[in-house]
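hiii so my PI (J.) wants the whole complex modelled not just the main chain, which honestly fair. so below is everything: two entries, each one labled with what it is. i double checked the lines twice but i was tired so who knows lol
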Amino acid sequence: MVTGLGSRFDTIVESLGPLCVGIDPSADALRAAGLSDSAEGVLEFGRAILAASVSRVGIVKPQVAYFERFGARGIGSLEMIIREAREVGLAVIADAKRGDIGSTMDGYADAWLGHGPLHSDALTVNPYLGFDALEPAFSRASIHGATVFVLSATSNSNAEQLQRATISGKSLSALVARFARERTGKDNTVGVVVGATRGLAESGVTEADLDGLLILAPGFGAQGASLSDLSTIFGAASTRVIPSVSRSVLNDGIDNISRSIDRHRKEMGL
Amino acid sequence: MVTGLGSRFDTIVESLGPLCVGIDPSADALRAAGLSDSAEGVLEFGRAILAASVSRVGIVKPQVAYFERFGARGIGSLEMIIREAREVGLAVIADAKRGDIGSTMDGYADAWLGHGPLHSDALTVNPYLGFDALEPAFSRASIHGATVFVLSATSNSNAEQLQRATISGKSLSALVARFARERTGKDNTVGVVVGATRGLAESGVTEADLDGLLILAPGFGAQGASLSDLSTIFGAASTRVIPSVSRSVLNDGIDNISRSIDRHRKEMGL
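here's the output for the full assembly
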């Protein structure tokens, strides 16, 4: 089984493009899809998205919170989604936004980037406890060619409450990008999350800050940004952006996810 | 079943004091305890700590990462530990450091502070995506008298990489405390995490910043701070501090956890 997102990013882009489809089985999404709000419902929902994603996109991103709602049984459904996605060649970004220190961070790295049942090709993490505290995740990722996406600038309206804070005139979001550039290697071990609904300027990062980094960009589709604006938003950095769509893939109903994905591909010129 | 940590904090302190015992089944801790590094091992480890904690302390704090390592089966063990702890009257702080936005944050709030199998009396969260983004957790917590502890200043040596950033001269750690003071109510719905190994001054928060807040303080015991120094470190705020010890409760081996807890109680003058 080929593993890791970072080490095969170029291959994925060459064959299917960089579009990423989110798997977000919220209570609302399940209701809209006519599925039960349960561990069985999130599994069925995830499988419907996987079936429509195969041969249309190369990357999927399950949002862990929606599975965690059902405790062990929900995490069991997530295990199956991750395994089935990887078996058909989809790269999985576990959107878990974990972050801790020392041996606790080891634990999270082990959970998502180790050999256990949640083994994914990439993981999102939170830098509030210090960039260096995330090192266990970076080390694990580099073993499997995986990528750790560190939150830099997020797409929500009150993100700037903390992210606009500065050290020596540099915003936190830019600092995170700088640390990431210093740590990432040829296999894209470290990337960043930069929300797309605000322009780069408002996010406190510049194209130069992002130079050479893989960028996971949520906020497309239902959250406001249009995929056709990707190069306007990210400029020179746009060739390394992984735009993610979630709620909007359900616009035509759960039986027509493939049609919604095709429309998004067209918006990107794929 | 009486629930929530915030609403019964005073009662807990009156009967057993504020000491909190961590449940941290890392690979190293399991090895030292002679237990297998597996979902069964973390369950057995957790149960040993629960047995020694009853009638000695009022609060336990499972570290979620160590259970998550084993996927659904590990989370299944955590469900049992949480339920068994609450059944014997221990208040459970789920140390998960979750943080996200919108309906995703709803998902985490639902998972840990809702009616599901991981329902706990308190949850730790990460503010990097904005303090307001955590509102779903605060709302949920207030329903059950639970407490959401927001990371403010952590005890690791590279925490200041981001936490020393400022907005209008205020450190992030102080800003988080200010937001928490504005949002917490009479039931201690919102508290903060302030690491104890560094003094308050180095953490960028003052006693005044913490006025009226419940403070979860990891970093005692094995990580360096002594419980007898609690009032020196936290000053006037020390009456509302929940000091947490983890690795050091294993100093006398897994068969003598109660002895280690008794020693810690003595250090606190309990």
